[in-house]
Amino acid sequence: MRKLFFSLFVLGALVNVGCHSKKSAATAPHRTLKVVRVQQQMIPTPMNFTSQLSSNYSAVIQPRISGYLTSKNYEKGMPVKRGQLLYTIDPSQINTQLLEAEASLNAARAEAIEARNNYERAVPLAKIEAISRSQLDQYTAAYKSAEASVRSAEQQLRNAQIESGYTRIYSPIDGVIGQTTASVGDYVGMGTEFSTLATIENLDTVTVRLAIPVSEYLTRREGDDAPAYDNGRLLSNIRLYMSDGALYPYEGSYAYTEQNVGSQTGTIVVVVNFPNPMQVLKAGQYARVSADVGEPQASVLVPQRCVVQSLDRANVWVVKSDSSLVYRQVTLGPTVDSLWVVRSGLSDGEQVLVEGVQRARAGQRIIPVEIK
Question: What is the CATH number of the domain that holds 212?
Fold first, then answer.
């Protein structure tokens, strides 16, 4: 009898506790949580690229004559100025040719003087028929031939003078000169081992080639009334980030679009330029470049901390009109600062939970506090 009474007592107590728990859960106060209201904005589409920098233009130094290198007048890897003397080539052979050309010219001029005198004496004799007409024609032809020989000798002398100038090689541009494999005393020039002496790269402006997928390129150009080759409006806000992540202070500008599509990559290459007044950027350096592609698109944004990602899915907690929570899958686009662009799954004006997203439960009612 005592055992039966004790069992009924315990059962009653458990029922009482269960009822009390249900009553407490029903009357539990709603949690106050922060939410944000989704707003549609015109957002550009940013793209990131990793590319190698190159000089805007360069000059290859090649000797125009052959000869022995007698001096190098610069330090490798250092800046050089346009017109600065870089190399000298032994002028001995060229000087010999120059003297021969001068002698040939003097001889041609002497022959021309003699031919002119003979012609001038023959003209009055022919008028009085002291000499035949054919003899006058011979003197005339000899005079014209002598004049032509003078002109030819003058041209040979000019060529020799030009080649004499080639013994001194000057920088054609401002830039940084690379290493030269030829040493003083080497025989350099066309047809030799040292047909190229160095390359000078101008780094006042650096060039970056950005590869854009053809599908993205065509999408971003849709509705653009510019000709296909005029893509100045395709890219904007072109920024470069150094290898340490620091933002380069100068913005890039569109240069041109390469004509052909990469057969293996299926991309269109757009070339942009960055000013480099302090010579911080170097040719061959890798850098990350970001740019807004095409015209801004109507998009909705949410803070990144609102999004719960697992495997290949992304979800957010949406606050319904009755302040209850619903777990909704969304499709994400690129990031803009600390925000996600949401391609689909959210509408303009909806509220999204921004705190407590890991502990939220479907159907849970909250007291939403909207923040900006």
Answer: 2.40.30.170
Residue 3 domain flag: no
* pLDDT tens for each residue of 298-321: 888 888 888 998 888 899 999 998
Residue 146, domain member (yes or no): yes
Q: Does 214 lie in the same domain as 310?
A: no
CA distance 344 to 329: 9
Nearest-angstrom CA–CA distance, 100 and 332: 80
> Of 264, 297, 330, at which residue does a domain stop?
297
Digit-coded pLDDT (tens) for 142-182? 999 999 999 999 999 999 999 899 999 999 999 888 888 89
DSSP symbol at 324? B
Rounded Cα distance between 63 and 194, Å, is 9
Q: What is the pTM (predicted TM-score) of this model?
A: 0.60
**What are the backbone angles phi and psi of residue 5, rounded to the nearest 5°?**
-65, -40
Q: Which residue is listed with tokens 């500008």? A: 253
Write the DSSP assignment of 13-52 as a string of letters. HHHHHHHHHHHHHHTPPPEEEEEEE--EEEEEEEEEEEEE
- Residue range of the domain that includes 161: 91-166
Beta strand pairing call for 366-371 and 31-37: parallel
